[in-house]
Amino acid sequence: MPFKPKDTKEKKKSRYRTLYMSEELFQKIDKIARENGTSFNNTVISMLEYCIGME
Origin, by domain of life (predicted)? Predict the structure, then answer.
């Protein structure tokens, strides 16, 4: 079953960080975001929340 990002949420208090990743990883995440009609950022946040059990 492929990963599905969550719907975009209401704005919450946030912190800014910069992430460096390989071009290959960037392309894979960008493809998931485009296929689901959401932003790259929302996709990364959804993945992180899923991995640490916050979903």
Answer: Bacteria
